[in-house]
């Protein structure tokens, strides 16, 4: 039993310990009304023999706990910092105005990111349950929130682990020199050596990704059977995840020391190495050159809000699950700010690395373009198509720079304007190469791998890069699996090891959908449809259930009792007004975009060596929309069955009467009381961390129960908090 609980204080101290109403409410445990001590005619302040006011689970200290604060922070960082920080944020930054994109992103991080992240941390830590138990407790009719979170976690986990499997395949392929994607394969046709046509029409890295790795089909209708290489890699990925999760947070917490910190080591190594490459400064300068006019476009703000939303892992249940293993007096306000800032800084660091490397790649591609087109010009000069008088006298073909080529091509275009289009000469502008925005698998498995082929000691850097992706993916998958297993373990008392093994086996079997030859198209479908809209709806309902149903003032009081200080009034207004409004706008914008944008995927056309957009066939479109429906279906179902009392809400009648009858002094505050709870006046008038005793009535409202003695309590935990001003 924790040494700082009030039960142990009562046992080991002669001083009386008094629980406040808020303490009782936060620690109440589901029980039958008839078995509660209040229905047994007990006197005020007494308990039944062998009974306690604390939940039975806490008395037995049966809930696991983090070994230390560092493991917990690393787990939250590992969950929130994932593949999206490396291959999604840089793309959005480039697409939406470079450095100007950071302004709306940071504003929305303050308005919805940190407040909602703090909210999830607080409810998980206060109620000490997974996502299902938390929202059943807050408002049983919205208990479907937790089930929808679990469904989304399941959908995302299925395809997210496939990406880890791809990274594992590339990781093992990196232990050879030259790298297998460095050059196009050559086919021997009799006495002739012919470059593979599909590779010649695309590039070596593109060919290796689509043909050697995925062996992809040309349409989603053609499944093509299982890709056995990817099937084995997926199996390895699920074994790794299962081993990390099966022992609970004591095991996964230790894993996080490596999986959360190693990616930062790799990113810093890549940044230092990247800055030493020719053209890296061009890439970084292009990245952060602000296009201020972009800030006025609504699309930029919508994409920034979506990225903030998913970067922190809001709505998945992993944040709530991790925080539920904390001590109740842990300073989750500090944790919310710290993890959010680490996530933001990581995105900036990854952006620097990506565009330093892509700047180097752009210079390589631009130089190759200059060489290829110079050979064309020399051919035209030798055949008399072009006159040598068109070439400026200072041009030296043996040492031709990009500036010399631009000048030469400008002269040719001006003089031979009538036939210039027939010459097939490219402008070879560096800016055009830098503007080729790539994201997701296109960045990790094509653009970045191509750049690494030009690195000295390229196998070493390739091994490091894909090992980093594996660790980033595992950190997020551990959080995702915890978001699934924790609420299930809280609801059904089964062995954790059995649950984890069963979940991983089922997930692997379902994941075979993604390791068919057409599996990449299903990964795209799940990524586009399974999480976006359902998660946004889940989070706005979380926000509404706490701020408007449970009550923001009551929640602020709970936080004050739990943390020992009153959170800033900023959070009150964010939770109650600003965040719900922004989320409503985001939902509307998402629905509009889904209605306007054609539903489809980019299919690989082998004959052309390029991608082509295809619309989903009717069965695939039905499957895509069914992902949204299935993920959101628990919300109305649970609401209906609970509203009409078709199924027990899982909470006891005593708890409901407590909330309704005993918290009137908070829910019916006058204006001056509201100012005391929300705004405060000055430091000298700040409330004491120890809640004042309050009189309250029993369920029937006939017996008044009062606490008249103040006890002393020594606050222990990861940090001793004096005032909110000390946190940030």
UniProtKB/TrEMBL annotation:
- Stretches with biased composition (Polar residues): 703-728
Question: Which GO terms label this protein's molecular function in UniProt?
Answer: metal ion binding; symporter activity
What InterPro entries would the database entry show?
Answer: Na/ntran_symport (IPR000175), Neutral_aa_SLC6 (IPR002438), SNS_sf (IPR037272)
Q: Where does Na(+) bind?
A: 78, 81, 85, 343, 472, 476
Task: Specify the protein's topology with respect to the membrane.
Answer: Multi-pass membrane protein
A single Gene Ontology biological process assigned to it is: L-leucine transport
Pfam families in alphabetical order = SNF (PF00209)
- What keywords does the record list, in alphabetical order? Glycoprotein, Membrane, Metal-binding, Sodium, Symport, Transmembrane, Transmembrane helix, Transport
Q: Which domain of life is it from?
A: Eukaryota
Q: Where in the cell is it found?
A: Membrane
What residue ranges are annotated as transmembrane?
Answer: 72-90, 102-123, 144-172, 228-246, 255-276, 304-325, 337-358, 460-486, 498-517, 529-550, 570-592, 619-641
Spans annotated as Disordered: 681-728
GO cellular component entries: plasma membrane; synaptic vesicle
Family under the similarity heading: Belongs to the sodium:neurotransmitter symporter (SNF) (TC 2.A.22) family.
Q: What is this protein called?
A: Transporter
User: Which species is the source of this protein?
Assistant: Fundulus heteroclitus (Killifish)
